[in-house]
Amino acid sequence: MAKGRSTIADIAREVGVSVPTVSKVLNGRLDVAEATRARVEAALARHDYRKPVSTRSPSSPRLLDLVFHEAENLWAQEIIKGVERVCGPARVGVVLSELGGSHRPPQQWIDDVMARRPLGVLLVLSELDDTQRHQLESRSIPYAVVDTQGEPTPGVPAVGSNNWNGGLVATRHLIGLGHRRIAVITGPGDVLCSRARVDGYRSAHDGVGLLRDPQLVRWGSFDAESGYVHARALLELPERPTAIFAGSDYQALGVMRAARELGLRIPEDLSVVGYDNLPITEWLNPPITTVNQPLREMAALATEMLLTLASGGRPASTQIELLTELVPRASTAPPPPG
C-alpha cells in the first residue's frame, strides 16, 4: 500500500478496530481507551495519514491555541498582545494554555486541542515530541514556535530574536564603561536563548582579550527570585563583580534588590543590565539599561504565519530572527574607582 494513501478503513483493518473508532481518534474524542488510541496513532504515523483541511466545519469557532511554559508575568503579556494584534482584526479567538513551567505539553492537552480543532497552535518557549507533532499534522493543524526552547525543528515555522547579539551588545556596553569583572545571570542551561546570551557575553570578553572568570557565570531561571539568589552569592564574593548582566528584566529586579540589601548603590557601586525591555523597566528607580527583544513583533509574525498556513497559503519565510539592540538607561555607569 502506498505510503500516505491509506484510508480510515485501511487503518481500522490494520489495527483491528472499527472505522468510527479511528474517526474518534482523528477528531480528538476522549471516549477511546488509551491503549487503543496509542495503536491507532501508531498506525496513522506509519501510513503518514493526514486528515484533509476541508473536513473542518465552516461553522466551527475560529480559534488559535497559544501555549506558554509559564504565563504569569509581564513577558507573557507582551507575547499575548502581539498575538492579539493579529487575531483581533482577523476575528480569531485565542485559547491560552500554561504548562506550569514544563516545556512540553501533556497528552491531555493534545487531546483537548484535537477536540476543539483550532486554526493553529502557537508554542512559546515550548516544543512537541514526534508523536504530538504527527497528531497535529495528521489533522492538518499547523503550528509554529516563538522563542524556541531548543534547536529549531526542521520545517517548523519559528520566530525568535538574535540572543547572541543581545548578550554581545550588553557586555560590550559594560566593557566600554570600564568594567572588567562582569557577571552574567541567565536562564536554564538547556534553553537555547540562555546559552546564546552567555555565548554573546563570552564573545564580548574574547573580542577585547579580557579574561573570563567562570564563577561569574550563573545559570538559573528567568524570574526575579533567581536573579536575587545568584546576585547575593555574586556580591558576597571576596572580589565581587562591578556589573551584572541579567538574562531577563525580572532577573534584573532581583539583582537590584540584592544590591540594595547589601548597601550597594545602582549604578554608583554596581551596574545592572536587563533583557527584554519590558515597559516597566523605564519607570523604575533608576530606569534599567536593557536589551530590547521585540516580543510583540515576534508573536505577531508567528501568528501571521499560522493564519497563512491555516488558509492553505505558504508564508514568505518560516524561520525569522529579529534584531536585538541595547537600550541604555541610568542603571549603568563606569565602575567605582579602585
Q: What form results from the Cα inertia axes?
A: elongated
CATH-assigned fold name of the largest domain: Rossmann fold
**Class by helix and strand content?**
alpha/beta
Instruction: State the major sheet.
Output: 6 strands, parallel
What's the arrangement of strands in the largest beta sheet?
Answer: 2-1-3-4-5-11
Q: What is the second-level CATH architecture of the largest domain? A: 3-Layer(aba) Sandwich
Mean pLDDT score = 89
- Return the domain count: 3
Measured distance between first and last alpha carbons: 78 Å
Helix content: 40-55%
Number of distinct beta strands: 12
Low-confidence stretches: none
Q: Secondary-structure element order, as H and E?
A: HHHEHEHEHEEHEHEHEHEEHEE
The helix tally amounts to 11
Gyration radius over CA: 24 Å
SS strand fraction: 15-25%
Can you say what the CATH homologous superfamily of the largest domain is?
Response regulator
The first-level CATH class name of the largest domain: Alpha Beta
Descriptive notes:
This protein has 338 residues and is α/β, with parallel strands linked by helices. It folds into 3 domains: 8-46, no CATH class; 59-160 and 295-322, Rossmann fold, CATH 3.40.50.2300; 163-293, 3-Layer(aba) Sandwich (Rossmann fold). It has 11 helices and 12 strands. Helix 4 (74-90) links the parallel strand 1 (63-68) and strand 2 (93-98). Helix 3 (34-46) crosses helix 6 (130-138) and helix 7 (163-176) packs parallel to helix 8 (192-207). The protein starts with 7 loop residues before the first helix and ends in an 11-residue tail after the last strand. The mean pLDDT is 89.
